[in-house]
Amino acid sequence: MSSLAPFLRLRDPPVGPPLPLPASLARVYGPLRLPAPRGRPRVLTNFASTVDGVVALDLKDHAGGADISGSDPHDRWLMGLLRSVADYVMVGAGTLRSVPHHLWTGEHICPEAAGSYRALRSSLRLSPQPVNVIVTARGDVDLHLPVFASGKVRSLVLTTPAGARRLAARKAPPYVQVLPVGRGDRLRARSILQALPPTRPTPTLLLEGGPHLLGDFLSEGLVDELFLTLAPQIAGRDPGTHRLGLVEGRTFAPGHPLWGRLWGIRQAGDHLFLRYRFPPPSSGPRKGN
What we know:
Helix content is 25%, strand content 21%. It has 10 helices and 10 strands. It starts with 7 loop residues before the first strand and ends in a 12-residue tail after the last strand.
């Protein structure tokens, strides 16, 4: 994708050291700086939303993010870039079911830039592909899907003890690791984060879905930065149609609103690419910039 036009950089604070992007990637994005570590894995999230806040149409054959972003090439390219700096890419079982044949790698979402993504991972001393992490409380996943059975990625399933027993009875492929997390029938975000096998002193986790899992991580103060693609689309809702918003299953405002800081703005065509950073919980509420 060498012909991809550079993003228009509207806001990009020069805070922190930039990552060593290959020239082909730096030409399109400019410098990429990540939040400073906080003594745990760095947690980035990446979502696309319509102007009216819909992140998934939740309809048969229209459940993936392509219907939201319009398969925008800059969105696919940026998704690939973020996957290429991550040790782990995590999704919930619902997201997996919405795109069952997906692999959460840079080259899968944007094969045109595969060589540049590989070069970036090599310069960061990362494994050739990020570990694909699937979160499922019930262990209700199809182990024949490509993310488990293709052998192209390392897969990690984080589940409850009951879910782990259910998956053990299905005989997961030997290169798929299943880890029970916690003791009950629910998975806490911090326990999920702590269960990740160590790869380096400050690994990076990229959370791509879905809205319930994002809500859990936000509620426990574990999101460092949200990358949000704002697509120029109005999806709409009616009383008979449930369409997912960015966060589901959690309510914050007005009692405990989560205020982030607008850290970056890029533009490509009619799409906006926003970055919001969130302070640690001890910092108290933050309103605006």
